Amino acid sequence: MTTACGNVKPELLVLATGSGSLIFSHVNDGGFWLIKEYFGMTVGQTFKTWSLLETIISLMELGLTFALAAVV
Q1: Long-range pairs for 32-40 at CB < 8 Å and ≥24 separation?
Q2: What is the rounded average pLDDT of the residues 32-48?
Q3: Do residues 22 and 58 lie in contact, with contact meaning Cβ atoms separated by under 8 Å?
Q4: Which residues constitute the domain of residue 18?
């Protein structure tokens, strides 16, 4: 696909969008409540932990997407 920004690969665009969707997840995520109950944490503790971990996952995925874009 060619755009005003140059040659854009739709596959990489999907990966980048997916990584951005994970960052700073909200409490309406089912995984949030599973982790809270499984580890016996308060909502505040779970919110801090879940948000940090989801942000790390998101940034790592974005970095891997950039690396993949450099190779492809």
Answers
A1: none
A2: 94
A3: yes
A4: 2-71
DSSP string, 3-24: ETTEE--HHHHHHHHHHHHHTT
Burial of 33 by CB count in 10 Å (0-12 exposed, 13-18 middle, 19+ buried)? middle
Q: State both tokens at 20.
A: 């951005």
What's the pTM? 0.77
- CA dist., res. 29 & res. 10, Å (int): 27
- Give the pLDDT confidence score for residue 62 in this predicted structure: 92
Q: What is the pLDDT of residues 22-37, one digit of tens each?
A: 887 777 888 899 999 9
